[in-house]
Task: structure prediction
Amino acid sequence: MFLANQDYLKLPGSYLFSTVAKKTKAYTDAHPEAAIIRLGIGDVTQPLPPAVIDALHRAVDEMSRAETFRGYAPDLGYSFLREAIAENDFAARGCQVSADEIFVSDGAKGDSANIQEIFDHDSRIAVCDPVYPVYVDSNVMAGRTGTYDPATGIWSNVIYMPCTADNHFAPEIPSEQPDLIYLCFPNNPTGATITRDQMQEWVDYANRIGAVILYDAAYEAYITEDNVPHSIYECEGARTCAIEMRSFSKNAGFTGLRLGYVVIPKELKDRKGQALHPLWARRHGTKYNGAPYIVQRAGEAVYSEAGKTQVREMVGKYMENARFILDSLKSFGYEASGGVNSPYVWLRAPGNMTSWEFFDHLLEKANVVGTPGSGFGPSGEHYFRLTAFGTYENSVEAMERIRKL
Ligand code: MLT
Result:
């Protein structure tokens, strides 16, 4: 694929967060004394919840005894985890999702990159702009996105749905007709959300035109407002138009453990009437050997009573950071949003700086690393993302340094 598909070569030399890491490393190599605060990639900093650690220890002990040793995991996931997910993430919210519609994986990044494989090559994609770069990049790699205009940062065959301050960073129904619609709420990178009624409009639209929504709910645990849906299956009709992707990384601190899942309802079909559940099962079984047993037991522990309480506390701490960052930036006169139902705060670079100019400015003058908004798409230009996944102390120190700029 790599050699055959020249579209790879039209992508930036590295993935956005790798570019940020490389630039940061170049700076720290040249300035080893700099006390860098990293609020760029959304990587968690709190240790795993005790209930998860206990489950890991227990599972490792099982692996050390012949009677309880496990080899290959079932490729679609152990039923103890799929049942816990169905009960806690869906039934508890009144959503109809059964355990055998859940495909356990090693995280939402891979799932959101790979899911396009089960769709026709000529499928037209619609994305929010700015957007988590994996959605577009993976479609570029599949040769589906047309030609690239470096002046505008636009791929000719992608439908961009601008999310700007004017529409409160919520996409509008596009005038061109897509086959696949990528939506992510709470949004990465803007931290914006849509209400249940707005989500229902997307579901109705997708069902009307026969499109499939690829819904990334990696940040649902950060929702604090009642009218914001946690799952697309809270909307009527979503089972005939939506795939949902979830992650344990942000919800439970698993960025280093790796665990996620995809939901594909059995009645969901593509435009040609092809059922998607068996297609993804076939793809998953061929290309994936299952998340490790010990990690799936750790995932199960997230849904224990102790696990739920501990995870809520963990999320609560990150949300304290988010509130602090948002309030501080606003009080310094920045245009800033997100941070209410999301661990991401989205701000406008001051003085009409470009996103990358502000990245350099912040790195050099405040030793704070963030993520340039333009890396997420053309409408992200002049914007910047800060994550609340750092420690509280570092969030406070970062804001103090930004105040002094
Ligand atoms: C983010 O910071 O947006 C993501 O966590 C990075 C990634 O998963 O690629």
